[in-house]
Amino acid sequence: MLRASLLAAARSRRMRSLVEAVPATRSVVRRFVAGAETADAVRVARELAADGRRITLDHLGEDTTDAAQASATVRAYETLLNALGAEGLATGADVSVKLSAVGQFLPSNGEDVALENARKICAAADAVGATVTLDMEDHTTTDSTLGILRELRAEYPWVGAVLQAYLRRTEQDCRELSGPGSRVRLCKGAYAEPEEVAYQGKSEVDKSYVRCLRILMAGKGYPMVASHDPRMIAIAAKLAADAGRTAEDHEFQMLYGIRPEEQRRLAGEGNTMRVYVPYGDEWYGYFMRRLAERPANLTFFLRGLATK
Ligand code: FDA
Hints:
Bound molecules: dihydroflavine-adenine dinucleotide
Shape: globular
Strand content: 5-15%
Order of helices and strands: HHHHEHEHEHEHEHEHEHEHH
């Protein structure tokens, strides 16, 4: 119930102005977001690199219906990738892109614009030795996102995508995306989805996650295990070992600010550990989804406001 309300609020303009208007919100948001500027993203990338953690950087923003805004997002990624290159941080780095931030929802030719814009980001990543992974948004965008992924991979075979285990279709998508070179970031899923398309209970979602992991680990692609759940991590480690995978052919991923000690532990044990680091001004939707995932985060947020 609370999760559903927070996810509904994540898409409400009215709630957004209310939450953003509270000055103290920003300092609480800082737990999950690196900062507003490119320099903040680069600083956090350097800090994480110091203890062996890799990065995927997300320039915050989503659901744009403004072509100029979509182009500005592309420029932000180009600036970021150039900065990472200049700082010697680009090799092995990744950027995460929401297609709805680069034009997917534009009223005319949205998909074409998103494809062209994503292509520009891929070219900038290619130039500095980084990779791109397409985030996955709500289920109405899945086919479009996977279609754009196919087009991009024809030119840049290293482009990856997120699949969400809560969707009933995802086992089949995992099968289709488990071929050589295919980078799949498997997560549980963070949006409010109807029963017809998505498992609703935690136990059903977890079982689906494990079925998807089995397919990906047994396949020929590069599985990226995006979860903070200790059970999922342990199962993924076992499946990877059973499949003879080394730290070079699968990885673990977590969100910035969540279970940092576990991130350090996994990296310290020789695993490839990547942290998803969001930065920028458009933090509202991302932040609300983090609150929805864990009631304790809401308490932390409210306590933070109360003590300011
Ligand atoms: P689960 O929610 O069961 O949590 C397991 C444990 O992890 C909790 O008990 C708690 O200890 C910790 N935890 C989880 N979430 C927390 C939080 N917000 N704050 C504090 N602790 C928390 N989703 C999506 O729909 N599309 C996408 O593109 C992505 N991309 C993405 C990339 C990466 C790298 C990650 C790690 C996650 C995503 N997600 C996502 C989000 C994902 O779908 C999911 O909502 C969260 O990862 C939480 O699910 P867990 O697997 O961590 O398990």
